[in-house]
Structures are given as C-alpha cells and as structure tokens.
Specification:
About 70% of the residues lie in helices and about 0% in strands. The chain is mainly alpha-helical and about 280 residues long. It has one domain. Strand 1 and strand 2 form a beta hairpin. Helix 1 packs across helix 7. The two termini are about 30 Å apart.
Length: about 280
C-alpha cells in the first residue's frame, strides 16, 4: 500500500468515526447542554437587571460587554461540563465499541490497533475542540444579543478592539482544547481497560473532579503544579494587557506530558487486550 493510499484510508476511517460520534443522540444532546449554559448566563443577568455584579472578573464585566458571556461560560463549564463531555466521548471510544460487539469487526477490516487508537484519539480531540468552540460561539451570540458587542475593556483596564478580542478568544479556545485533549488521553486509556463505557465515563470524570478538588486544597500546594487542571483557567491571562503567557506555556507543556504518557499507556493496554466481544 502506497503512502497516499494509507493516508487516504486513515482519513476515511476518521471521517467514519466522526460521523458516528456526531450521529449519536447523546452527543447531540450534550452539545445542546454545553450551548445552553452561556445562554442561561446571559438571560439570567439580563432579566435580573444587575449592573454591578460581584464575583470573578469575567462575571463582573458581563453587563458592560456581551463578549464576557463567552469567557464566563468557558470558566464555568471548564470545571464540570466540558470534562464530562470529553469523558462521555472517551468512554464510547473503545469500551463502547467492545460493549456493542463492534470492536473486533473494526480490527478485521483490516485495521491495526495503533491506527485505530490514533483515529479514536483524533476524533476525541476534534470533539473536545468542537465542544469548546460551541460554548464560545453560543456565549458570543447570547452575550451580543443581551448586552451588545464592541471594543472590550480588558481585565487590566485597557481597551481592546473586537478583532483582537475575537482572535484572543480563539486562542483561548485552542488552549482549553489542549487541556481537554490531555484529559481525553486519560479517558482513552481508561476506556481500554473495561468493556463498560459508563465505567470509563465515570472514572474519567472522577479523575478531573478529583484534580479540581486537590487543586483547591492549600495543604497540597506542592502537588498543584503537577495537576492537569491547575493551569486551565490561565486562559484569562489572554485578556490582560500585556498578555501574561507563562502559566499558559506551563499548562501546554503539562498537557503534552499527560498526553504522551497516557496515550502510551493506552497503546500498551490495547495491544495486550484480548478482543473477544
């Protein structure tokens, strides 16, 4: 098989996997839930008529510019809803196929286990990126309708045009997606250990939740720099002037480390697995 044929076959398999993921009603419902959160935030604050909000920086700025609805929604969903969405996708990746009895047929196409795992992980990364993008887009639309859009005041008090603000939001989406991609690698590894997708989903969600809890305990500050979620909220530094990028760079390196380790573990586990279902 030539390189072109191999690449073409890989993309066909990826396209088939993405159609399967997007075609599941559960995943479609999950996207609606993700999009509903920023809408709920915008509607609630609009109806409340609050002009002097209290709380996180993004929330306190919502009524001055609807753009902050997207940022607030991302900060809220990052602790539970987005990790849960990734956990659902990861649980279905391998364990779901095994549970339905379709995994062994995938491996007899023929498709190598390494190739199948690469396609599954790529689809998870695309799913994570899609989920984050939906939250950001819904936030911008809902915020714009509720409070209007325009030049935004950064968290440092300077003015930022809509063009640069949108660009920074896109960078924030990519940064958050990178962190979720590392969580997806953890979920994929867990998915290779069981034939019950619900077990993989719960375990992956529990890992993310436990990390958030540990990150909030001051007595565990020595462990904080090694927790995957520790730098996830650093995307807020994009909306300061000047931009503080140190935490984001650290977060990206940490995400890369988690991804490499757990993808390697998933590959080793999947190679040893006896596919009988």
């Amino acid at each position: 098989m030539s390189a072109a044929e191999a690449i073409g076959g890989w993309f066909r398999l990826l396209g088939s996997e993405l159609r399967l993921v997007l075609g599941r009603r559960r995943n479609q419902a999950g996207l609606l839930v993700l999009a509903a959160i920023p809408v709920l935030i915008a509607v609630t604050l609009r109806l409340s008529g609050t002009r002097e909000a209290h709380g996180p920086d993004f929330f306190s700025s919502i009524t001055s510019n609807g753009f902050f609805v997207a940022l607030s929604a991302l900060s809220v969903e990052l602790t539970l809803f987005l990790p849960l969405a990734v956990a659902v996708l990861a649980g279905d990746a391998i364990a779901g196929e095994a549970s339905q009895g379709t995994l062994r047929y995938l491996l007899t196409v023929p498709v190598s286990r390494a190739r199948l795992l690469a396609v599954k992980y790529t689809s998870l990364v695309i799913g994570a990126l899609g989920g984050v993008f939906v939250v950001a887009l819904a936030g911008v639309v809902a915020g714009g309708l509720a409070f209007g859009l325009g030049p935004m005041t950064t968290l440092s008090g300077t003015q930022l045009g809509m063009g640069p603000a949108v660009l920074r939001l896109l960078v924030a989406v990519l940064y958050i997606s990178a962190g979720l991609a590392a969580l997806a690698a953890i979920g994929l590894f867990i998915s290779t250990l069981t034939e019950q997708p619900i077990v993989a989903m719960v375990a992956t969600t529990a890992v993310a939740t436990l990390m958030w809890i540990m990150d909030a305990i001051p007595q565990l500050d020595f462990l904080h720099p090694w927790l995957l979620v520790h730098n996830w909220t650093a995307f807020g530094d994009l909306f300061r002037d000047p931009v503080f990028g140190d935490q984001m760079v650290t977060g990206l390196w940490l995400a890369l480390g988690y991804t490499v380790v757990f993808l390697g573990a998933a590959y080793a586990s999947f190679l040893r697995r006896d596919i009988t279902s």
